[in-house]
Amino acid sequence: MQRSAVLLCALAIGAVAAPGLGQAQSGAAPGQAALNAELRMNELEDRIRELTGRIEELSNELSQTRQKLDRLSSDIDVRFSQMQGGQGGPPPVASASPPPPPPRPSQGAGDLSQPASRSGTLGTLSGPAPGAPPPPPPSPRQTASTEGTLPAGSAQEQYNLAMGLVTQANYPAAEQAMRQLIQRWPNDRLAGNAQYWIGETFYARKDYQNAATSFAQGYEKYPKSEKAPDDLLKLGMSLTNLNQKADACRAYARLQRDFPSAVQSIKDRLASEKQRAGCS
What domain range includes position 196? Predict the structure, then answer.
């Protein structure tokens, strides 16, 4: 496209210059006319090179602007999802609360390298013995480690801690924390939410292939989750970024079919993303 624009510019300049060249050739000696034509061609070539350089500069600026908009859109998606009502986001933190102490290894936390047990718990983490009282809730000062290791606590408490890593943009740690939550609480209603946020951590890092896989798994494993419509929407967006627009349109069609009563914010975003993917 750039080369075509340059050629069109050259042709336009040549058309304007042609009458002058003809006049010069008709009133000057053949040698002088040839010299004038060569000078004119040199001027045209310089102009073409100048236009080519400008077009390349504009293309580079456009590419950088598009990358900035993608990053901004990703950050807005994360914050907007947290603001949606009933999504299990983290509670507001009191401004007067004391700073958390350095994280300490939790007594019940398992090693991430250990496989999950049949009960779905991670590593050496085990549930309470039959008849034993439930473990006490974690201290409000307790936090997830920067590597994504969750302390002991309820599913909601651990989910809130994992979401704290998302809001801090510590996406690798947030991914690990959400995976731990799913392993510890595979049947909890928050497991579907956690799977969605795993996809968001990949999307924010522009790893659209893993993002698409995570969102698809979220919809397949937790079709009744409150995040299921979001899974299909972000699946389509990830596929669009992978230039798999036909598959993206199929994801959007599934969203419209399975969730006709989705919240208006999802419907509005769906309409714009379908247009972006060129869906019919």
Answer: 145-280
The reported pTM is: 0.52
Strands (E), the chain: none
CB distance 222 to 88 below 8 Å: no
- Confidence tier at 242 by pLDDT (50, 70, 90): very high
Instruction: Give Cβ neighbours of residue 20 (< 8 Å, ≥ 6 apart).
Output: 40
Decide if 93 is inside a domain.
no
* Residue 137 to residue 130: CA distance in whole angstroms: 19
Backbone angles phi, psi at 243, to 5 degrees: 65, 25
Domain boundary among 14, 31, 65: 65
d(CA 124, CA 116): 9
- Per-residue pLDDT, 189: 93
Number of domains within the chain = 2
How much is the average pLDDT of 94-114?
40
Compute the distance between CA of residue 109 and CA of residue 153 in angstroms, rounded to an integer: 10
User: Residue 276 is which amino acid?
Assistant: R
pLDDT the model gives residue 151: 82
Query: Would the pLDDT of 143 be above 60?
Result: no
Burial 129-161 (b: 16+ CB within 10 A, else e): eeeeeeeeebeeebbbbeebbbbbbebbbbbbb
Nearest in space to 164 (alpha carbons), one of 180, 146, 137: 146
> Within a domain: residue 276?
yes
Domain end: 65, 87, 105, which one? 65
- Are residues 51 and 178 located together in one domain of the fold? no
